[in-house]
Amino acid sequence: MAREKKSMIGFDPLAWLDDSSDSKSAPEDNKETPAAAKKKPAEKQKKDTANMIMVLGHSIDETALLKGYGLATDVLEETVVDFYDELFTRYPAVKPLFENTEEKAQAGKLAAALKLLVDNLHNEDALKATLTVMGERHQGYGALPDHYPVVAELLIASFKKIIGRSWTKAISAAWMELLVAGAETMCAAYKDEIVEVESVEPEIQETESVETLVDSGHPVLHLNSIQDISKSQALKHDMLALINDNDEIDIHASEVERIDGSALQLLCALFNYAHQNNLVINWINPSDILKESAQILGMQQILELQ
Ligand code: HEM
Predict the structure, then answer these.
(1) pLDDT average per 10 residues of sequence, the chain (306 residues)
(2) 89 CB-near residues (< 8 Å, 6+ apart)
(3) What is the C-alpha to C-alpha distance for residues 89 and 157, in angstroms, rounded to an integer?
(4) What is the distance in A from the centroid of ligand 1 to the CA of 128?
(5) Which end of the chain is more exposed for a tag (fewer CB within 10 A), N or C?
């Protein structure tokens, strides 16, 4: 969706680290003349020396990374709570992915994920193998490649918020680099989207949902009776076609008998986009099932289905 494009696609996960930060932890930065070192306050001289290692093709300051790990393991529960709060407030469209998630169990899962990354920093084969399996699972959860930078940024921001000043910019930079490296390997395990598109394409012909006629004169997005993940690609295709050229559209939804989280998530993205871009969306006879499903997932407000 266009809105996601603005906030996610093209997102530079490191952009928020400013130039003046101590995140410039390349070994060169730590080279200094003895005279220069003498002039520095004692605290500066005690600063940990960066130890750059290569992990999955990324250069990472291991010293900062391990220091961050030590700090993070003490505050996992608070961090998870803060992280989910921020994630769902800022990106409500991802909430359905976590509909079966017990927040309390997530601290343990986060602990396991961080430990796995840290334990295998020097064992790239094991790291790759585990991340590949995790990537396959995440594709099944509905996690999109565009979600990864957002999750990485918010997780690191939560650690920073909770830990405070001891969580330095060098630590943020090291963790961002590791999470980006991990995300790349996880996403590389995703099944080729082209295969999915090809398998869905005939369906686009059969279940064509965009109509340009209607009483109101606006183009119509026609939701299918079963609107699930198998039709999400087609739905996204139709939504993109509609928003490019129109100021007002109708969604015909009287026939919806079943709609899953992936379809609702797409619709939320459409409404968020509409909100930001003055696109008017009119529901035409939304079915009770659609309204109930949106209500169960807490999306009725975003979808203006109250
Ligand atoms: C480097 C990035 C990430 C790491 C290391 C990671 C790690 C994990 C781990 C260890 C689990 C536990 C279950 C499993 O291993 O399959 C998990 C579950 C999950 N993750 Fe991630 N994740 C990452 C990114 C994401 C992203 C970007 C999303 C999408 C918003 C996401 C959504 C989920 C969901 C929906 C679950 C299932 C939660 C449940 O157990 O109910 N993850 N993740």
Answers:
(1) 31 33 36 44 58 95 97 93 92 88 81 91 95 93 90 96 96 96 94 43 41 63 80 77 81 87 77 81 90 76 84
(2) none
(3) 14
(4) 16
(5) C
pLDDT value, residue 170: 96
Hey, whose CA ends up nearest to atom 21 of ligand 1?
138
Domain 200-296: CATH architecture, name and number where available: 2-Layer Sandwich (3.30)
- CA separation, residue 152 to residues 12, 107, 172 (Å): 11, 16, 10
CATH of 2-188, one of 3.40.1390.10, 1.10.490.10, 1.10.10.10, 3.40.710.10: 1.10.490.10
Domain map of the chain by residue range? Answer: 2-188, 200-296
pLDDT at 8: 32
Considering only CA atoms, which residue is closest to atom 29 of ligand 1? 143
d(C-alpha 222, C-alpha 235), whole Å: 9
